[in-house]
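Q: Got a minute? One more chain.
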Amino acid sequence: MTHTRIIPADEIGIAQAAALIGRGLPVAVPTETVYGLAGDARAGEAVAAIYAAKGRPSFNPLIVHVDGMAMAETVACFSRLAHRLATAFWPGPLTMVLPIAPHAPIAPLVTAGLPTVAVRAPAHRVMRALITATGGPLAAPSANASGAISATRAEHVAQSLEGRIELVLDGGPTEVGLESTIVAVEDDRLRLLRPGSITVQMLRSVAGVPVDSCDTGAIEAPGQMLSHYAPTKPLRLGAQQARPGEFLIGFGAVRGDANLSEHGSLAQAAARLFDLLHVADASDAAAIAVAPIPEQDLGLAINDRLRRAAAPRD
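A: Always. Here it is, folded:
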């Protein structure tokens, strides 16, 4: 059985990670959002190894991470609107779903058979350095078992994927704490496929077109499965106080056993959400409850993750 090692995300660590990716093996790496499980997006066997390590359904597409526009345009076709969004938000936590570029060097398994590809230029120095070291785009879903709580620390990755991957690069806790915003870019509108720290208001101000939250019911991008980001224990939302046997994650005036943000900061709550779900899941409590989070701005993204985490599981 493979032992999963955690090593510093320094030059030596990045070189070791790049060597493993060159052999077709996935490695866990920090980004500004959550830890990702990175593999060579150009190699079908490497992408299959990502799916296998996560236990991820192959109909669920992956995000392709690039180091900038030159690499991005080998992967996807960029309209004027897409260029505008990239100029405003890249590098950063925005993923765009775009038509695949002709002759794109991407393994078909990355897109799950769709004619579109999800692409992002991350801001985190470690992920960017790893892309440079490997010389090509990296497919990288969140570094956790499929459907489980996303990882915002190296130890979260090791707990979830122990024995399934060889290496985790430890870059400390992630800054944003929620996965990237995902939008499908169309001629005259954006379709929000997954909310994140790039909010609808931010998108509208740059795009100058409507941002619709319509859901076709089809899986077009990561994070759209009904049950996702889930702890092993039952999760109750909108709790003002704990019931017997519950670990209460508070927010603002609802104090709880731990608090996402005592001052009611949505940014702080987003950064701490998955971390506290891990803490609650590891506690002696039989169930988890979470205080109400406002349905506005970044709260939309936080509540999206919580609703999927609390959804019935098959």
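A: The radius of gyration is 19 Å.
Q: Perfect, thanks.
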